[in-house]
Write a structure and sequence with these properties.
Elements: E1 4-7, E2 12-17, E3 20-23, H1 38-50, H2 52-61, H3 64-90, H4 94-99, H5 101-124
Antiparallel strand pairs: 1-2, 2-3
């Protein structure tokens, strides 16, 4: 028995594994390898757990990395915009930072936590 055979009817190569021929399938290479940050990783985990069909479609089409990089970029921009808007709305300035650093850190941590929840609800888990 040959180790590899080619089936002209479907254009696939098959490899002999014990007594069975298994198709030699590979995922398509992605065009760009963009880095994926925190938000993209969280969205990937969400897709793997809750949107398996969509995740599999992106993975097999070779578009997963580009999609996750785009989601990461959108989420990061939205997060920064929300933090700036909340800082202005609550009057948190560099003057407060110089005057009372501990209070400034506490308020900024609160703002960042609220912004993270908003971004997760609007982009990551949508």
């Amino acid at each position: 028995m040959n180790k590899y055979i080619y089936d002209e009817s479907n254009g696939l190569w098959y490899e002999l594994q014990r007594d069975y021929y298994i198709p030699c399938l590979t995922l398509p290479a992605e065009k760009e390898n963009k880095p994926i940050g925190l938000w993209g990783q969280r969205h990937k985990r969400y897709l793997q757990e809750h949107k398996r069909a969509f995740y599999a479609t992106l993975l097999t089409s070779g578009k997963l990395n580009a999609y996750l990089a785009d989601v990461d970029k959108q989420a990061e921009e939205r997060f920064e915009r929300i933090v700036e808007q909340m800082k202005q709305a609550q009057g948190i300035t560099e003057r407060l930072k110089a005057k009372n650093a501990l209070e400034w850190v506490g308020q900024m941590n609160n703002i960042r936590a609220c912004a993270m929840e908003i971004v997760e609800r609007e982009i990551i888990f949508a």
